[in-house]
Design brief:
2 helices, mainly beta, seven-stranded antiparallel sheet, 7 strands, Porin, 61% strand
Length: 185
């Protein structure tokens, strides 16, 4: 059986970034009635939020994998969910030119994050054309940001001067909610 799931991710409160748009394309394998659950793979899109975020990063893409296991004892209305997601905000380069010496320096920023989550979902998990659902989950999120300052050499790229300003890794626990409608084709 083939199914397509489109769901908008809600933004994370208190984070340095917010999810503006998340479009999930879900491909399920197997017969849900026989398998009792679904495994899905999907793509993610994240855009920077705020003036500083847009200046030092660009929108990025990622992917995810999740499992939905409905409880048949409750008429397949309640399900457990688990998944993992990876996002890479594309590298961004900001150029600064000194007014007096005309020396050009670049700030190169690279960011990525990974999220593992478990939770529950309420909604129809049987056979139907449209199946709305809502859920909540707890997630362990790893976030990495690396910033370098570079004085480029226009004639020979190998002669550039590079200094790593900082590389930070953060691990945090988050709570999230989601809603969506699954369309079985």
């Amino acid at each position: 059986m083939f199914s397509l799931n489109i769901r908008q991710l809600l933004h994370h409160r208190g984070g340095t970034h917010r999810v503006l748009l998340g479009t999930l394309f879900l491909l399920s394998a197997g017969n849900p009635a026989a398998a009792g659950g679904k495994i899905g793979i999907y793509g993610l899109y994240m855009a920077p939020y705020g003036v500083d975020a847009r200046e030092y990063s660009r929108p990025g893409w990622g992917f995810g994998l999740h499992v939905v296991l409905p409880l048949p004892q409750l008429d397949n209305v309640l399900a457990g969910t688990a998944g993992i997601e990876y996002l890479n905000l594309l590298n961004s380069t900001t150029t600064f030119v000194d007014r007096l010496t005309h020396l050009r320096t670049e700030q190169q920023t690279e960011q990525s994050c990974c999220r593992f989550y478990i939770g529950g979902q309420v909604g129809g998990h049987g056979n139907a054309l449209l199946r709305p659902h809502a859920g909540a989950n707890v997630a362990l999120v790893w976030y990495n940001i690396s910033t370098d300052v570079v004085i480029p050499d226009d004639y020979n790229r190998e002669n550039e001067v590079r200094q790593n300003l900082k590389e930070q890794n953060h691990l945090c626990l988050r709570f999230g909610c989601h809603r969506g409608t699954r369309c079985e084709l």
